[in-house]
Design goal:
Layout: E1 2-5, H1 10-22, E2 27-30, E3 48-51, H2 56-68
C-alpha cells in the first residue's frame, strides 16, 4: 500500500475513501483513530489515504479531479440568508 494523500480532517478523508470506492479503488484511511489524540500528538500528518500500489496513480488523478470540481451553473442559491438549503 502507498500513502497518496493527506486529508485535512476525518470528514475529507472519509469522503475521499467513499469516492474512490465508488470508482472501484479500494482505499484505507490510515491514522483515523489517532485524531482524538490531537493536542497530545502533532496536529499534522496524522491522517493518510492509502491505496494499493497498482491503484496509486489512478487514485491521485481521481482526487485531483474531485478537488478541482466546481458547482454546475444554477445549482448554487442566489443568497445565503442564514437558511440551510437541503
Amino acid at each position: 500500500m502507498r500513502r497518496i494523500y493527506e486529508p485535512e480532517n476525518l470528514l475529507e478523508g472519509q469522503l475521499l475513501v467513499d469516492m474512490l470506492a465508488s470508482e472501484g479503488v479500494a482505499a484505507h484511511l490510515h491514522g483515523q483513530h489517532l485524531a482524538g489524540a490531537v493536542g497530545e500528538l502533532p496536529a499534522c500528518g496524522l491522517l493518510g489515504l492509502m491505496v494499493g500500489d497498482a491503484d496509486a496513480e489512478r487514485a491521485r488523478m481521481l482526487i485531483a479531479e474531485y478537488n478541482a470540481a466546481q458547482p454546475l451553473p444554477g445549482d448554487e442559491p442566489e443568497s445565503f440568508q442564514g437558511v440551510l438549503l437541503c
